[in-house]
Amino acid sequence: MSTVTETGTGDAAQPVATGEAFHAALDGGPARPPRPSAAAASLAFTWRAMLKIKHVPEQLFDVTAFPVLMTLMFTYLFGGALAGSTAEYLDYLLPGIMAMSVVMTTMYTGVSVKTDMEKGVFDRFRTLPIWRPSVMVGYLLGDAFRYAMACVVILTVGLVLGYRPGGGAAGALAGMGLLILFAFAFSWLWTYLALLLRSEKSVMGVSMMLLFPLSFLSNILVDPATMPGWLQGFVDVNPVTRVVAAVRGLMGGEPVAGDLLWVAVACALLVGVFGTLTMRAYNRK
Amino acid sequence: MGLAIETTGLVKTFGAQRAVDGIDLAVPAGTVYGVLGPNGAGKTTTVRMLATLLRPDAGRALVLGHDVVREAAAVRDLVSLTGQYASVDEDLTGEENLVLLCRLLGHRTPAARERAAQLLEVFGLTGAARRQVKNYSGGMRRRLDIAASIVSTPELLFLDEPTTGLDPRSRNQVWDIVRAVVARGTTVVLTTQYLDEADQLADRIAVIDAGRVVAEGTPGELKSSVGAGTVAVRLRDPEQREAARAVLATALGTPVRAAADPLALTARTPPGGAAGPAARALAELSAAGITVDEFALGQPSLDEVFLALTDRKEASAA
Ligand SMILES: Nc1ncnc2c1ncn2[C@@H]1O[C@H](COP(=O)(O)OP(=O)(O)OP(=O)(O)O)[C@@H](O)[C@H]1O
Ligand SMILES: [Mg+2]
Fold it and tell me: Quick one: where is this thing mainly located (chain A) (predicted)?
């Protein structure tokens, strides 16, 4: 026999069973199953990130409309002036635009981590007996999906405008893969900032301040050879420059081992440094 | 009986403010322990320290035998928390929230779905399973939140103000759930601002104010230390109020307050049973020819408990 809390109007209309059914439900989880593995926990959080995209699809705006706009704008704005023709310029520009769009969108990782963290659900996650970085890994893997989407959108626009990757389909895929990998590693910087800074606005502000020089003072739009010497110095050490060079190499069918190695090392360093800092800040909060 | 929680001199400061200022608690295992206090008393801060979310600045806390700082992972294995502000994801549906929690607790996806469906059923949320939580009412959100906490039955469950803002029916549902959870052997630590809630559910209560425990004991002990309750009287004729006041003061032996309403009087009943003195007071009022429209016995309000407790503290300090 199960006793049932009185039914009525309002939200309590559906009864809560508090008799045997309830006890059976409690017995359904008498002992906790073994803790999930780091991978299983990360995947569960990735699933959460994907559900958020499903429920709030507006957040895909920045990886669909924005990259299309960027590609069209820069192709026609600089195309004629810099390389003589848009088709020629696209060979040089497209991998750069792709890198710029994706690197710019990484910024939203910090903002969404910050917004989410202020909510009560974070308290629950932090009291769970799981591998601690899995929450962040989940965010970043969810975002990797967004980056992939931005890449595909830009590649499509490029193909329509006449872009033909010299490396063929394999080269294009490899380039996009490398870019997404870099964006994943780079995003740990934003998760750290999100944990460090006080408000969503300040996360946004600091991200912009870092991203603008990183994107524009690079080899994305123009060949650094045309720049004054002091600027070339900065452009050379700018990680975005190296990533763009590596992606260009892969997509153009002439990968440069040095650039690839550089990106691999940069990724490892970013995750090592900012991943560690993020987790330290996360545990201390 | 062992202790589920044992704290000594727990302190948490935010800037200059001592939100928790040396709290000692001893929570017996398998019971409901009420933490009662007004806004800003330090209830949430205390719970967050015990649930490994905040690091204490001083003092020590053992939860189920594990130190909350040094053995945080072991504590997390055994406890669940339903925070004051919905600890569920507003963007997800009720079902997705529970499946996520099941997966995070180590269930594989098919088992997670089954478990989620079972919990939605007994918590009366099947109809709302596929709606986003942001469209839930307060009561539904609370139930989902508690369901998320017992996906795997924890040894110790923290409920931070689980019924604040709920209507009476939803509140009763939450109470029933708490009773059932405790009957299964889980220890529950429940914070509340309502004396009657603590009274209904808790085996023992700690009253905290300004980050300190000002009283501790069973509900009975607390009430008898404060006075069993209040007598509220409404007269027909405001002219008779002074006379009525004198009669009540003699019959009850406690101070009588004249409320703002010119027809009303309230008094605390003396320690040790309210019914006898109250019946006598009523009889004497009518013997004195005073017309009484309403005569009600009530529990002391939280305010009165606090006034009484802080009064006594100051008196003993003097
Ligand atoms: N993160 C924080 N930073 C600064 N002050 C804080 C913080 N958290 C709590 N406080 C302060 O500490 C005191 C105790 O807060 P706490 O939330 O523990 O009270 P409470 O008893 O849970 O109150 P309520 O009934 O309103 O939930 C309050 O004065 C609050 O302003
Ligand atoms: Mg609180």
Answer: membrane
Most B CBs within 10 A among A47, A126, A127, hence the mutation to make, goes to: A127
CB contact, 8 Å: B115 with chain A?
yes
CB contact under 8 A, A121 and B90: yes
Nearest CA to ligand 1 atom 4: B14
d(CA B247, CA B119): 57
Give the tokens for residue A117.
């963290």
Tell me the DSSP string of B167-206. Answer: -HHHHHHHHHHHHHHHHTT-EEEEEES-HHHHHHH-SEEE
pLDDT tens-digit map of B53-77: 999 999 999 999 999 999 999 999 8
A229/A88 Cα distance (integer angstroms):
26
CB B182 within 8 A of CB B32: yes
Record the pTM. 0.82
pLDDT level of residue B219 (50, 70, 90 thresholds): confident
Ligand 1 pocket: which of B44, B53, B54, B85 to mutate (most atoms within 8 A of CB): B44
Is the minimum CB–CB distance between B179 and chain A shorter than 8 Å?
Answer: yes
Query: Which strand (E) or helix (H) includes residue B217?
Result: strand B212-217
CA pair distance B304, B268, nearest whole angstrom: 9
Mean pLDDT of chain B: 86
DSSP structural state of residue A255: -
Length of chain B: 318
Q: How far is A3 from chain B (nearest CA, A)?
A: 10
Nearest CA in chain A to B80: A127
Architecture of the domain delimited by B228-299: 2-Layer Sandwich (3.30)
Across B170-196, average pLDDT: 88
Of ligand 1's listed atoms, the one at least distance from the Cα of B41 is: 21
Confidence band of B317 (pLDDT split at 50, 70, 90): very low
DSSP β-ladder status, B66-67 and B58-63: antiparallel
| Residue given tokens 């440094």 in the structure block | A273
Report the range out of A111-115, A170-174, B275-279 with the highest average pLDDT: A170-174
- The CATH 3.40.50.300 portion of chain B extends over 3-224
The pLDDT value recorded for residue A38 is 92
Buried b (16+ CB within 10 A) or exposed e, A224-251: beeeeeeeeeebeebbbbbbbbbbbbbb
Could you tell me where in chain B the CATH 3.30.70.100 domains are found? 228-299
CATH architecture of B3-224: 3-Layer(aba) Sandwich (3.40)
Q: For residue A140, which amino acid is it?
A: L
Q: What residues pair up with B206 in beta bridges, in sequence order?
A: B35, B216
**What does residue B265 show for φ and ψ, rounded to 5 degrees?**
-135, 145
Q: Where do the domains of chain A lie?
A: 57-122+129-284
Q: Order across the sheet with B156-160: list the strands.
A: B79-82, B156-160, B187-192, B32-36, B204-209, B212-217
Partner residue facing A121 (CB), from B89, B107, B172: B89
